[in-house]
Amino acid sequence: MEDNANANNLADPPAETSNEAETQAPEVEAASSSTAPRARTDVSGFAAADQGGSAAPAGGQGGKKKKKVSDQTGEDVAKRMMNGPFSDLSRHVASLPKQVSTAIEKNCSSMLGLVNEIDTKTTALAPFGKMVTVAKTGERVLYAPVCSREAKNPLSGSNRIKETEKYKTIVSNYDELLRDFTVKSTHLIHESAKLEVTERKRILREEIVRAAIDLAVNLAETVVIKCKFKTPELYNTLTLTAESIGWNAAILYLNQLPESTLKLLFFESSAELSSTIQLIFDREGGDVSDKDAMENAGNLDKRVQRTITPGLEELFPLMTWEAWNTIKDEQAIIAVNAHLAVKKANKAQSKINKETEGTITEKVALDKETVFELFDEYTAKKDRKKSSGGFKNQKSPGTKNGPVESKRSNKPKGKSQVKPPPKQPTKQATEPSPKLSRKQRKAAAKAKREEKNSQEKKSQKKNQQSLKRGRGNQDDAASAKNKRRKQSKK
Q1: Where is pLDDT greater, at 401 or 48?
Q2: Cα-based distances in Å from 393 to 117, 157, 387, 408, 410
Q3: Which of 43, 146, 167, 257 could be cross-linked to 161 through a Cys-Cys bond (beta carbons 3.0 to 4.6 Å apart)?
């Protein structure tokens, strides 16, 4: 009877008991409320010392500085998730404990990555099984990847066997082998591409179940630990662990989802969901109590489960299909804008062709900026040509103060001002040199060497003669000097 009374106190505590009143509003309900300024303080869960509780954690004593409550909550995680598909989820994450918020962010990122990969691989599957047109021949054939359809016949027989019937049969058999290879290789590539999608869907289904269980367990741990710190006597009435309570709450929540929601979570049916849950339970739920134990648990255990269920119903859709639908809506808006931009560009292209009579022949239908620039440039030239006279006789467009009158200088031009026209370089027509044979090239080289040798001999002979003349002049000067000396002595 005392345990039941304590459980009822957790659900509906009296207003005059302050410690039990704090357990009335668990943090999950605070997380599901977008406007609750007090919720962020309660979510941290360890402020019992301010209420006079005896279970406050040590760490604020001995002169140590207490950490801010915001350092223990998911405000930093909420800031990272603010801009993107999880913006609605960020409002709730900010008031949760930091470890819970970090786990939510990690699971959201992992599941979103798999969803993007599934979309990419599904797009690659689209051409298989469809008829396509060959660009060169215009023939309609079944789609085949490039690696399958580009195989060519390597046989290239000589002219001696090309026209024989045996060689033609060999070539025909090889072509048939290539066609069989194209069909079979395309089928195998198609099967591989489908396996890429199905395997990612299987991994995603397991991650979805695991993310729901992680969220429920973390919320249950938060409620139970707050209960332990604030009302230890009530905490002692728990019969199951927080992990068991979280597992049972998550499984109960997933089994209540409708078929339409399961389709969004890549489950084909509720039977596939049950098999995935059983697989995760057998793999990771060794120490977890089953459903029967939860039904036979105490009132406090059931109250904790009922407390975290609204948090699951509020947070899990924002983590999964609602965020994925937000991305698809954004992609649809981008596709609409791209379609309208191309339509506008094509309209501008047709207007250019009509105005210019085909003088602008660039294919710019998909580049709307280029189309508009070309059209503006053309219209500007057209306006200039409408005015009389050439460009030199046109007046300046003027300024804000009025038109600018062009004034010609009456000063006569001198010689320095008159510049002669530039001389055009004259190109001398050079006849191509005739092609010489090997003997002619040798004879020409020999004649060139002989001419060079003769020029060297002539230059050496001239140098010798100049040296001789210099020596003769020196001898004549010396003899004249001696004669003058003899005459002076006499």
Answers
A1: 401
A2: 66, 74, 10, 12, 18
A3: 167
Give the separation between CA 202 and CA 208, rounded to whole angstroms: 10
User: Please, is 114 exposed, middle or buried when counting C-beta atoms within 10 Å of its C-beta (0-12, 13-18, 19+)?
Assistant: middle
Q: What's the rounded Cα separation, in Å, for the pair 61 and 57?
A: 10
Q: What are the Cα distances from residue 2, in Å, to 218, 230, 232, 466?
A: 28, 18, 14, 142
| 409-427: average pLDDT | 53
Residue with tokens 């598909």, as numbered in its chain: 85
Q: pTM score, two decimals?
A: 0.58
* Contact (Cβ atoms closer than 8 angstroms) between residue 311 and residue 28: yes
Please give the pLDDT value at position 248.
92
CA 280 – CA 273 distance, rounded (Å): 11
Cα end-to-end distance, the chain, whole Å:
170
H/E stretch holding 140: strand 140-142
DSSP state of 59: -
- DSSP code string of 221-254: HHHHHHHHHH-HHHHTT--S-HHHHHHHHHHHHH
Identify the H or E element spanning 142: strand 140-142
Following CA atoms 343, 344, 347, 352 in sequence, which dihedral angle do they give, to the nearest 10 degrees? Answer: -140
| 259 neighbors 269 (Cβ within 8 angstroms) | yes
Q: Quote the pLDDT of residue 307.
A: 92
In angstroms, rounded to a whole number, what is the distance separating the alpha carbons of residues 116 and 50? Answer: 47
Nearest CA to 185 among 226, 221, 155, 142? 142
